[in-house]
Write the structure tokens for this entry.
Amino acid sequence: MMKTEHDPDRRPSVFDPVKIGPVTLRNRTIRAAAFEGMGRDHLPTQELVDFHGALAKGGVGMTTVAYAAVEQRGLSFGHQLWMRPEVVAPLRALTDQVHAAGARASIQLAHCGNMAHAKVAGGRPQSASARFNLYGPTLPQAMDESDIARVVEAHADAVSIARDAGFDAVEVHAGHGYLLSQFASPWTNRRTDRYGGSVHNRIRFAREAIAAAKRAARDDIAVLVKTNLRDGFEGGMELDDAIVLARALEEEGADALVLTGGFVSRAPMYVMRGSMPTRVMADVMTDPMLSVGIALFGQMLVKPYAYESRYFRADALAVRAAVKMPLVYLGGVDSGAAIDEALSEGFEAVAMARALIREPDFVNKLARERGYRSLCDHCNYCAAQIYTKKASCHYLEPPTDRVRALLRKDMGR
Ligand SMILES: Cc1cc2nc3c(=O)[nH]c(=O)nc-3n(C[C@H](O)[C@H](O)[C@H](O)COP(=O)(O)O)c2cc1C
């Protein structure tokens, strides 16, 4: 299998093609997995198909459909995709539209673990250990070895479904405090068996899931993995463990890593820096308890992080120095200059979420004006919407005056 290995002497341009595993992207931009909230009954809608079609027409090298559960037990939301044979035909319409516009299509494979909701997941959430998750709120069941083997196989099955639907790549979600990250993190993993304790034991599940995904991919489609640089709170996974994980996944043959950080149940703003839209979020929540809880305590419980361009740069560079495999830089990519800098530092590609939510044609704008800067103001209104609605940008789909007033308060204006 041919692989794009990092060559420190070469300084690619954003519009140079790049090879990730068996797949060539027309340029070095990837739309990051960012939950669209456009599924219905766990199936893609025409709106989701057109949404990714628009990103492809807007110039991205590859677009990533977010957060599809590998099994029912891994579901958090009713409007989230679930990888079953029924998704193949509607997802084929999506990949056809993306390919017709010259881009590549990837799908993120996720398992929410202790973030799953019993109502949609069809049973009690499972995780590494039975530790209360305040954010759910859930008290998950600790997985036994047969549960782990089942979820490893579910990753392989989901890759086969993605291939049948015409995807060029999958991205296995091993970050942000979802199931594989709950095993990797010493905070959520208190096991004493071969899946707990040392970092090598904590990452065993991720290794097995990636090995199964690679087997099922048969080198027809690329397997990217989204991994944490740090969980973002004391007692969570830190950079030294992240480097051990990156090296292990390189050994397993992962085609690229997308480097990220944060833990939804403990440090949700670590990945999405900028303002914290708790009033808007409380407003969209349909569960009255959660809505009141977030409105009253959201600002107190969640640590804010100020936005800056390329905020994961220092940690991502440490991983760059530790592995040879292709790495995708993510986090605060907001301009032509930020992209050039990341590529000149040895990252093979960049991934963007909010810049492309604000301007789906950001890459075409960049082609016309190399110094172009994103218009996104990191208010995170888009992220506040996803719990019950779709991820819309308030500039593109203006909210009511009442919601606009809540957003202004969240932004401290
Ligand atoms: C609306 C929204 C939804 C997101 N949903 C996901 C998701 O489903 N899976 C994921 O791995 N990351 C998700 N993220 C995080 C993004 O992929 C990305 O890591 C983060 O926004 C930082 O990148 P950016 O500065 O380019 O926006 C989401 C972000 C936003 C704004």
Observations:
- Residues 32-35, 66-67, 108, 173, 176, 226, 260, 271-272, 330-333, 352-355, 382-383, 386, 391 surround flavin mononucleotide (CB under 6 Å).
